[in-house]
Amino acid sequence: MKIQFRELAQLTAADRAVLLRRAEQDIRKLLPLAQEVIDRVRTEGDAAVVDYARRFDAKDFTAAMLRATPADFAAARASLSPQVIAAIELAYDNIRRFHQEQMPESMWFTEVKPGIMAGEKITPVASAGLYVPRGKGAFPSVMLMLATPAKVAGVPRVVVVTPPRPDGKADDASLVAAQICGIDEVYVVGGMQAVAALAFGTDSLPQVSKIIGPGSSYVSAAKRLLYGTVDVGLPAGPSESIILCDEHVDPRLAALDLLVEAEHGPESAATLVTHSRAVAEQVHAILPEYIAMLPEWRRAFVEKVLSEYGGIMLTGSLAESIQFVNDYAPEHLEVLVKDPFIALNQIKNAGEILLGELTPIPLANYALGLNAILPTGGFARTFSSVSVWDFLKRSGVGYLSRQGYEALQGAVTVLADYEDFPAHALALRQRNQILGID
Question: Which fold has domain 5-23+239-369?
Answer without folding.
Answer: Rossmann fold (3.40.50)
